[in-house]
């Protein structure tokens, strides 16, 4: 017979989950510090993780995948530092389906209130993982899930379970894994596309299938987690959200193993600019996004590609004359959104071979140089002759206008 305490605890879990589900909000879960940091070359020191965690808190993420405490002392140290400082997001720790991993997570997250700490359990479920990685049958895998989720639920109010390689797991078995995990006490079930091979259409179908075929799915939140091996992680995340997922897991700058993870800033901006389509509110302050991208770039040492949406150096820069002319007349002519919306840098009108007279005039005026017709034509002519890659700065423009 269930004890009274257990019954009350079950009721609390149920109430929280139902409130989340009814709100229609999409919960943004960040895994930069765990899945992102797993990327070769992106290793972060505990102090650096804390700086990023603070920036993520300020940006408004709902939960933070804080690390894998059983994997290293550095992860435990980083989590302890976060426990001491981070107040708003839920902190979760990654665990295998081992009691010892859950115990270490319990210690690492000690001190946080029940509603601000959780564990995220994972176990390979696809035929490839069962046969080659685990050497376990379907029923043995189900046993591992039930046993570990049940154990975790005794220690944590928030328990997530993810069947690793879910996108290559047989649909009937996948649903069975979810059903057992929820029965054992999982409050969130994840759908990880571990090797990043789905398309948006297939994502939509599988997320609908899970909601239709897992009989107790209403008792848990459904989280999606995509990798970018086909360049579709953002698109798949949006398809998952459109199909009814409650939580989306992402990393800043899309950092992560192989081709990376779904990029937090891209998913958030798509949800923001297409609020009419998705009808899902999120809690992110978009003006914090560009500074967040820069911070993660700086601390991980993983350079953001120039063309990367939201955080790339080129997204508010143009060299083309017609575009420069339009931007000077009204920035919206050639931008999907203004830089201020993401806390980005001012629009930059780069001078080069493709530039036009308006941009040249604008630059000359802002530098206090003569901007008459003769000066503008002189600069335009010289720009077309200069070798590619020449830095067009104030000094060079001053020389050109003076006929040097
Ligand atoms: Mn992953």
Radius of gyration: 25 Å
Which structural category fits the helices and strands? Answer: alpha/beta
Shape: elongated
Total number of beta strands: 10
Output the strand order for the largest sheet: 1-2-3-4-5-6-7-8
Largest sheet: 8 strands, parallel, barrel
Distance between the termini: 92 Å
Describe the structure.
This protein is of the alpha/beta class and 404 residues long. Helix content is 48%, strand content 12%. The protein has 17 helices and ten strands. The chain has helices at 4-23, 32-36, 46-59, 73-85, 99-108, 127-134, 138-155, 171-184, 200-213, 233-242, 264-273, 275-278, 289-300, 321-329, 357-366, 373-385, 394-401; strands at residues 27-30, 63-67, 90-95, 117-124, 158-164, 188-193, 221-226, 247-250, 317-318, 348-349. Helix 7 packs parallel to helix 8 and helix 15 crosses helix 16. The protein is elongated and about 90 Å long. The mean pLDDT is 95.
């Amino acid at each position: 017979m269930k004890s009274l305490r257990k019954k009350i605890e079950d009721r609390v879990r149920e109430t929280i989950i139902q409130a989340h589900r009814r709100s229609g909000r999409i919960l943004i879960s960040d895994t930069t510090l765990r899945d992102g940091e797993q990327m070769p070359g992106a290793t972060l020191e505990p102090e650096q993780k804390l700086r990023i965690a603070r920036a993520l808190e300020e940006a408004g993420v709902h939960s933070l995948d804080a690390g894998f405490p059983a994997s290293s002392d550095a992860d435990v140290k980083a989590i302890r530092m976060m426990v001491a400082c981070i107040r708003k997001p839920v902190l979760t720790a990654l665990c295998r389906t081992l009691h010892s991993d859950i115990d270490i997570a319990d210690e690492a997250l000690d001190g946080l209130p029940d509603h601000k700490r959780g564990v995220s359990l994972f176990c390979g479920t696809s035929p490839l993982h069962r046969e080659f990685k685990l050497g376990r049958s379907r029923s043995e895998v189900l046993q591992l899930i039930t046993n570990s989720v049940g154990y975790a639920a005794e220690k944590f109010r928030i328990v997530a379970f993810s069947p690793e390689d879910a996108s290559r797991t047989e649909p009937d078995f996948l649903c069975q894994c979810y059903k057992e995990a929820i029965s054992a006490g999982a409050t969130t079930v994840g759908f990880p596309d571990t090797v990043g091979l789905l398309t948006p259409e297939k994502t939509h179908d599988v997320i609908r299938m899970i909601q239709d075929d897992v009989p107790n799915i209403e008792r848990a939140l459904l989280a999606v987690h995509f990798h970018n091996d086909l360049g579709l992680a953002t698109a798949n995340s949006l398809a998952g959200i459109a199909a009814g997922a409650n939580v989306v897991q992402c990393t800043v700058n899309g950092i992560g193993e192989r081709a990376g993870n779904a990029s937090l800033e891209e998913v958030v901006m798509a949800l923001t600019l297409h609020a009419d389509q998705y009808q899902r509110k999120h809690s992110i302050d978009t003006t914090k996004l560009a500074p967040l991208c820069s911070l993660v770039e700086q601390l991980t040492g993983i350079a953001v590609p120039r063309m990367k949406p939201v955080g790339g150096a080129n997204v508010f820069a143009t060299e083309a004359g017609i575009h420069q002319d339009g931007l000077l007349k009204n920035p919206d002519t050639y931008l999907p959104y203004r830089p201020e919306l993401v806390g980005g840098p001012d629009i930059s009108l780069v001078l080069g071979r493709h530039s036009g007279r308006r941009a040249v005039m604008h630059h000359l005026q802002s530098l206090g140089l003569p901007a008459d017709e003769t000066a503008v034509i002189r600069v335009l002519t010289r720009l077309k002759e200069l070798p590619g890659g020449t830095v067009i700065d104030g000094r060079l423009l001053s020389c050109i206008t003076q006929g040097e």
